Structure formats: C-alpha cells, structure tokens
User: Fold these one by one.
Assistant:
Number 1:
Amino acid sequence: MSAPIVRRTAFGWPAVPNAGITQTNLGIIVHYDGGKGMGPGLTGKTHSHCVDYWKNTRKTHMLSNGWNDIGYAFGICPHGEIFEGRGFNRQQAAEEPTPGKLQNGNSRYVSCTFMLGVSEKPTTPQLKAFAVFRKDMMGRGVSSLIHGHRDFTSTDCPGDTLYTMVRNGSLAKAPQEDDMPLSGSDGDFIYNAVWGKDKIAAPAQASDVKTNPTWQPQSYLKDTNAWARKIYNQNVQLAAAMTAQQTTINALVKVVADQTKAFDSTQFLLKLREEMSEALQNLNVHIDVDEESPTP
Ligand SMILES: [Zn+2]
Ligand SMILES: [Zn+2]
C-alpha cells in the first residue's frame, strides 16, 4: 500500500535531490523541530503554513547548515500530510554521526520529522499519517524498527513526548482500516455507489417523471445547478428591464410636467415609487413560490 506523499516538485524543488542514492532500509528515525526551544507552531494554523515551513526548512538547511538539500527524507505536518524531503533511498543530513551512539543514520535509515515544537504534542492526524507512512516504508523493504534522533546524536530531538512513544511502541501501531488512503478504483466505486444510485424521487414536475420516477443524486445536483443558473439569469434580465422601465417613467413624468404647470411631479414620483416597491415585494414572493417546484 502506498501512502499519499506530497512530492518535492509540489514545493517548486527539483524532482531529484542533490544527494547520493543509498539503501535506507534499517528503520525509521523520528525527529521534531526543537529549534530555539519554540518550534514551528503549526498546530492550530492552516495547512498553508506547513507548506511555507517545509520550504523555509530547506532554505535554512541549505543556507545556514550548508547542506545540499533539506536534511530529512520526509516530514509529517500536524494536519496529517506527508511531505517528501530528500525522499526514499537518498543520503540524508539529519543525524550527525556521534561516537558511542548508533551509526549510519544518514545513509541507512529513513528520517521522518514530525513538524512540532518542544511544547507541542503530536496530533491524531499526524500519528495516523505516520502509521500509514511506516506501512508504506515497510512495503518498500524498510525494517519495522523505529528510533529517535537522540539514539544517533547528542540532542533532545525528537522531544520527550515522541521519544517515549518511540520507546513504548505506540508509534509502531499498524494503521487502522479507516486511516488507509483510498486507491483510485476504491474512490470510483464509492462515488458510483453514492452518486450513481437511483434512489431520489424525481421532481414532481420533471418532464420525464412518469418514465423515470427516481433520479441519481448526480442528476439531481445537475438539475439544481441548471435551475440556479436559470433563476440567476432571469434576475439579471429582470433588473435590466426594471431600469429601462424607470428611465421611461422618468422621461414620461418630465413630459407631463412640462405640459402641465399644475402637475406636482415630486408628489407623483413618490406615489409611483410606493406602487413600484409594493409590486416588487409581490414579485419576490412569486419567485420564492416558483423555486419550490422547478420544472425542467
Ligand atoms: Zn532531529
Ligand atoms: Zn499541515
């Protein structure tokens, strides 16, 4: 099963990183963002902030750290989106080799950062996405082992919350059935089952109601849309007609006033406006009634 991963090109990056090909099949290394003790603060923000964060992380890693690309192979945001970094089976720069610790982090393991700061806890969508991601990696031959960055380098990363989850096995849970992304054919199946089912009573005044008494939801949606457009166009035409009418009336009033000195044009116009607004109110009621039983 493959996880839905947002590819590098979606961030405007070259499809392939400037990093050697290697075999990252010994397990997954979990990271977070403890930078300056604050982190990205993405939880509770809109997802576009995560995209900006991922782009900025690559910039910082290249400009400040002098790395060839973003350091991580992958990242998961608090909304549960999985972002490609260097990608699968690429040399990484996320774990500085340290004597006395586990070795070959950058070349033999897959690094995955949770886009969280020191005081932030992983979100449910993030944990679900990690389970799907891990299953994907295992499908590509990666071992089921999960480590924390601190197993390779002297660092607090991935923070105490995530590291506890690494140690107690709660990050190693298999994804639940409903966490699985749908394959294309599953999606089509569900669409057809829901939108293509002949179950809704046809509108009473539909021209084919006798021969076709039940409609598919997708037919109903199309019909409703066609009616909404039709009503909108009618309203536009109505407004134009009323403007033309008003212009004609104004001209008429002027002619009458010019002819008849005694004629009180101001009073006449006021009375006329009253009549028109009353007529308009009736018109609105009329349209509402019509909308309830549209006939194709
Ligand atoms: Zn780290
Ligand atoms: Zn996000």
Note: Residues 195 and 217 are 5 Å apart (CA to CA).
Number 2:
Amino acid sequence: MNNTIALIVTAIIISGAVAFTVLKPTQTAPLITQEPENPVVIREDGTQQITINVKSGYHPRSVTAKADIPTEVTFVTSNNFDCSNDILIPALQTRTQLEPTGTKTVALGTQEAGRVISGGCSMNMYNFNITFE
Ligand SMILES: [Cu+2]
C-alpha cells in the first residue's frame, strides 16, 4: 500500500516536471511589449521603414526618423485585444484597425525636417510620435 502511494506521488512529480519543461515559454521569443530591435531601418529600395510593436500602447512611443525620404510605419500585434489596435493619425487623416495578431503598414509619405507625426488609439489613451529630422 505504501509502495503504491509512493509510486503515485513519484509519477505525479515526474509528470509535473516534464510538463513544466515542455510548456515553459522559450526565452528566445521576443516579447511584443518590448521595442523592436531596430525600429527605424532604411531598406535597399530607399524607403524608410519604421516598426512599432502594439500591445497596451506603442513600443517605441517616440521615434526619430530621417526627413525627406519616403517613409512607412508597420504596426505589429501579437494577441493584442485592447484599444491600441484602433489607430488614428490625425495629420494623415487615417484610421487603421489592427488584427489581434498580424502586421499592417501605413504610408507616411515624405516628411520635412521638424515635422512630427503623432498617432494614438481612438480614445487618445495611448499615443506615439514620429519626429523627422
Ligand atoms: Cu484607447
């Protein structure tokens, strides 16, 4: 009887350890709440590509970009269900609805030095700005 209980307890401990090892999140997966490694990249075609991760706000919130070159901003979501998925950019008169998981790109055109393009969720709880210089 005692042996049976000991066996069951051992089995539970081992299966728990196995489940913990298998199910624990991999540490290499980037957290979407963090800023992308390179938020501003100039592609080979000469387009400036800004990446903003969206989860309970915008990461990064503040971006400095190069003036006088065509620019686009790509919003990246991963299981995000809050209002930051609904993005208004008043200066461009655009409204962008993001899927909970995915990417969406908005063209910002070519901006002069000193221009600041601001955007945010439709309630203006969360916001971001892109400064051209
Ligand atoms: Cu909001």
Note: DSSP finds one helix and ten strands in the chain.
Number 3:
Amino acid sequence: MERIIRRWLHGSRQSVTEPNSEQFAGRLEERFQRMAIPLELHKVLCPSELAPLALGAALLMGTVVGCSQPAPPQASGTAPQSARPAQQNQKLRVTATFLPVYLFTKAVAGDAAQVDILVKPGTEVHEYQSTPDDVRALAQTDLIVKNGLGIEEFLEGTIKSAENPNLKVIDASTGINAIDEISEVVHSKEGKENHEHEAGNPHVWLDPVLAKKQVENIRDGLVAADPANKAIYQANATAYLQQLDTLNQTYEKELNAYRDRTFITFHDAFPYLAKRYDLKQVAVVEIPEDQLSPENVKRTVNSVKQFKAKALLSEPGVDNKLLSSLSQDLNLTLRPLDSLEAGQTDPQYYFTAMNANLQSLKAAFQ
Ligand SMILES: [Zn+2]
C-alpha cells in the first residue's frame, strides 16, 4: 500500500515501458533449441525451467519430473555443490537487476557468463514492480547481481516467488557506507517520507571510486560462483578498474579549476559524486517526474536565487517541457546529467555517460 501511495505521489517517467515479454520468450526458446527440446514440450513438462540434467533424464526415462522437486543431488564426490551443470559446458547464468550493475557485471563477465538484465533500460527502477516474466527469469538464473542499498524494493518478493533454492545473490554495495542527506535536498513539507530508501541514498555507482568497489564485489562474487573462469573475470575486472581510475583522475583534475561548484538537479542521484569531488548538489526533487509540480517550480526558482546557480541539470530522455520553459524564463541553460538508470547496455556506456556528465558540470560551473 505504501508503495502504491508513493507511486501515486510521484507519478512515473514518460519513458516507462513494459518489460518485453516477447524478447524473454525468444531467449527462452533459443535456450531450449540449443538443448534440442521443443519449448512447447517443456511448457507441458514444467512452467519453470528444470535443470537440463533432470529434464534429459526425465525424457530418457519417459517420466515427468515434478516441478516442485529439488534438483537431483549431485553424485557424491569431490566436486563442489553448484547450481550450474559446469560439466555440460553451460555458461553461468547471471541476472543483473538494472543498468549500472548490468554494465559492471557484463564488463567483468565478458562472454564467460550469460548476463541478462531484469529491469530494462528506460523503465523506472525506483518504483518498479516485478512481472511474472521476472519471476520466471529468476527461477532460471544462477546468480543475481543487485545494487543493494534498498533501491531494488521489488527484489525480495520476486526472489521468494521464484522458488529457486540454488539462486545466489551478489550485493554490489557490500562494504560501502551509504549516506543519506549528505547533499541538500529541498523537501516539500510532506515530502520526506514520500521516497526514502531504507538504507540511505542508493546511487553509489555515480561515484567512480565507489563504482570500483562495486566492480570488485561483482568480480569476487563471479569468481566464487564460477571458479573455472576466475582468470577471465579477474583480467576483465582489472581492465575496467583501470578505466575507472582514469575517470576518477580526469574528474579530479578537470573540476579542480572551478571555484563555484553548486549544481541543481531534479533527481537526488549525485550526492556521492558531489562528496567525492567537493561539489554541492541541490536536488529539488528526489526522483524524476513527468512534470514538475507548481511547488517544485517555486522551489527551483528559490534555489537558483539562493545558490546563484548558472545551469539546471536534468536527466536526459526525460521530456519535461515545463523544465525547458522554466530554464528559459530564468535565463539558464538546461543541461543533461545522466544517472545511468537508463541508457545503452555496452559496458563502455558508463564512461561515455560519465564523461558527458563531466562536460555538463564544467559548463554549469563556468
Ligand atoms: Zn535514482
């Protein structure tokens, strides 16, 4: 109920799209084609995917294995218990919850694991509600990678519904100290409880240094789940971590020149970035909305005056006509600042977007 109220209070972004169930069905079919088992037959056998081993055995014996039965115990021996039939050369199946953790996971996994994304880019993660397709996806995956810090509110229930006893979870934010309210958020009177994450602000991926910690956590989780590919995961992670180091150095160097470092956002996504580089984020609203409320407009105008801001920074892709006309009225430039909750799925997109953000910040501070 609380979530419904919040959803109603916040509205949703215009770019919201329904998860593409056709794509999912396509992937499922592809997998069964590889296994030479017709999808229709599989659907008859079991609504959720059986371990290929069990299904193969069932077909051979001409029996149907009950779907609620646990996977057959592995033959006793020295091999560690694993959800993954490594002996069949099947890749580890990894599901990342949403874009930033997908980018980091894909960067580390490369082609050694099959990495899918649960909340498709362009779908609002903050207020996300899972679908039956998500439950099916988690029923069939070996490993979930989540950002943690409370942003994936839907996940706990989805995992429960998936009833996948072998499912492992990597929390990419393990070891990161979340901080809330470290930057100015201009709250409305009733606003604070509208959208408060249980574990502090979750947007740690937007600080390149904390992103490194997330990549390391993901690397260690993949190595633990799939030690056979340890060398690949480590090499891929090392290369990506070096890029994050370079990005951090670029931010430090290029922002150093500016004395005035206050920026106004319409999504409280950048407090960690601000803290890292000694900037001041003034977030007028906490998560992007379709249209600013009249009260938000008032607060924006006040913040611009109070902080003598020279630019407004808004999520790319959020078509906010009110925001563009407001920036015109205030004689300010409206610049994009990407929270990476939407965007491209190439792991290099992180650097493309973060470098573009740097240019927007520099322009805002000039
Ligand atoms: Zn966000």
Note: The first strand starts at residue 92 and ends at 96.
